[in-house]
Amino acid sequence: MSTRRIAGGTLISMDPQRRIIDDGVVVIDDDRIVAVGARHEVAAAADADTLMDARGMAVLPGLIDCHAHAGHGLVKSLGADDGEAWYQACEAFY
Length: 94
Known about the structure:
This protein has 94 residues and is an alpha/beta fold. The chain has two domains: 3-59, Roll (Urease, subunit C, domain 1); 66-94, no CATH class. The chain contains two helices and seven strands, in the order E-E-E-E-E-E-E-H-H. The chain has a four-stranded mixed beta sheet, with no helix packed on it. The protein starts with a strand and ends with a helix.
């Protein structure tokens, strides 16, 4: 089992209290988040194979960014000369 720790950042939790935790830590065993909280509260944070220093960063454990521009990749050069063609293509896609 591989244990990773992301520590030191501002942790934005999705718990019922929607806590924002300074100097937060996220502990991940293999591919599963097993602990989230303030560094001084999470005992498992000390025992990790890998450490990611997140100082100065926001950490959102469990967030899956599904934002994409798939349609734009298909027609990215379409609007190079004619903006109207780009708008028509976007209207057709979306």
